[in-house]
TrEMBL record:
Residue stretches making up the GHMP kinase N-terminal domain: 90-189
Gene name, Swiss-Prot/TrEMBL: galK
Pfam families attached to this UniProt entry: GalKase_gal_bdg (PF10509), GHMP_kinases_C (PF08544), GHMP_kinases_N (PF00288)
Chain ranges of the GHMP kinase C-terminal domain: 298-369
Family that this chain belongs to: Belongs to the GHMP kinase family. GalK subfamily.
Protein name as annotated: Galactokinase
Organism field: Frondihabitans peucedani
UniProt keyword annotation of Nucleotidyltransferase present: no
Length: 391
């Protein structure tokens, strides 16, 4: 029996006023550096969440999706993170976070300080960003909703502000203590480019990747080992970084560089030292990657990608055997460089590959997973895409 996804009019009876899309992301390099005020270099990808929106006459937000049956409902007058759960928290959380954060920018360009003039909406969510793969399916929903609400409610706010709204929602409505990288990539991404973000100043620069000109492609290996950031390892790693910074007398690990490593080794226990070393060296690798992309092109960044993976595997200890196998197999079969991407503990690896070697590398990874008895991974090419926009 074949099933078809519901259309907007199957679920809602309001008239459609617009559609918005926001992409997932791949992080080229700079992992677990964002919440340490450091540097990241993600790209928005050609996998996205699309929302179709109808205007309501009341102050209700009603949301449905093509991936789960049922309609979730919340009143704009009673938005409360404590009563948000499941995937709809990614939608309601944005409205709540906007309400909380608007006072920070009220008055700038005539921005309203509250949501008193906002109206209700019906929202249908669809997405081709794989869930749990470390490609920011949640940020894609948040950012599609954020740009739609800003457009529809005539909020004169900037994209960096909307990224901070997305992060605030993720932290307080969803309950994951994540940084600002994913929402920034989804909102600020550009075709064929990466976003070089300083997570302290929030200065962002678009960096040309030049993959096509160099005959390269970016392959994603989704190991299908699912991860979550609201619990366990992610929370624990963040706490280690904060402990390390406090013990070294700085407000964040951004204030340290490789020259501080000998002192860090003296002061910290071995595990905390290795966590700190990952962040310090990863920040340097982001800066080196940006410089190398500019001066030599993408064919020269392989060693930095490889070193990033080793650091995440051995120092930050966020890799899993499936990610290590994807990375080592890609490297052994001709990838320029490879690393796990995203928060870790599952999810996806990326490999920068010559187009001519792409299919051979994909086959080798599939064969290696089969030989190891792992679940078959999903392997696909991604291209750097534009950030969230109205369709
Ligand atoms: C997840 C988080 F959401 C990001 O903020 C970032 O910390 C990343 O893991 C690790 O670099 O995607």
């Amino acid at each position: 029996m074949s099933t078809t996804s519901p259309s907007f009019s199957d679920v809602f009876d309001t008239e459609v006023v617009g559609r918005w899309a926001a992409p997932g992301r791949v992080n080229l390099i700079g992992e677990h550096t964002d919440y340490n005020d450091g540097f990241v270099l993600p790209l928005a990808i050609d996998r996205s969440t699309t929302i179709t929106v109808g205007r309501r006459d009341d102050r209700l937000l009603r949301v449905a999706s093509t991936f789960e049956s049922g309609v979730h409902e919340a009143s704009l007058d009673a938005l409360d993170p404590a009563s948000m759960d499941g995937w709809s928290a990614y939608v309601f959380g944005i409205a709540w976070a906007l309400r909380e954060k608007l006072p920070e920018v009220a008055g700038d360009a005539g921005t309203a300080a509250d949501l008193s003039a906002a109206f209700g909406l019906d929202i249908l969510v669809e997405s081709d960003v794989p869930v749990g793969a470390g490609l920011s399916s949640s940020a894609a929903i948040e950012c599609a909703v954020a740009v739609a609400l800003a457009d529809l409610w005539s909020l004169e706010v900037t994209r960096p502000f909307l990224a901070s709204v997305g992060q605030y929602s993720e932290n307080h409505a969803v309950g994951a203590p994540t940084g600002i990288m994913d929402q920034s990539a989804s909102l600020l991404g550009r075709a064929d480019s990466a976003v070089f973000l300083d997570c302290r100043s929030l200065d962002a620069e678009v960096i040309d990747l030049g993959f096509e000109k160099a005959g390269l492609e970016l392959l994603v290996v989704d190991t299908r080992v699912e991860h979550a950031h609201a619990t366990g390892g992610y929370v624990d790693r963040r706490a280690s970084c904060e402990r390390g910074a406090a013990a070294l007398g700085v407000s964040s690990l951004r204030d340290l560089d490789v020259d501080d490593l000998p002192r860090a080794q003296e002061v910290l226990d071995d595990e905390t030292f290795r966590r700190v070393r990952h962040v310090i060296t990863e920040n340097q690798r982001v800066l080196d990657t940006v410089r190398t992309l500019r001066l030599e092109g993408p064919g020269a960044i392989g060693a930095l990608l490889d070193a990033s993976h080793v650091s995440m595997r051995d120092d930050f200890e966020i890799s899993v055997p499936e990610l290590d196998l994807a990375v080592s197999t890609a490297q052994a079969n001709g990838a320029v460089g490879a690393r796990m991407t995203g928060g870790g503990f599952g999810g996806a690896a990326i490999a920068l590959v010559p187009t001519a070697a792409r299919d051979g590398i994909a086959s080798a990874v599939l064969a290696a997973f089969a030989a190891a008895g792992y679940t078959e991974p999903t392997i696909f090419v991604v291209h750097a895409a534009d950030g969230a926009h109205r369709l």
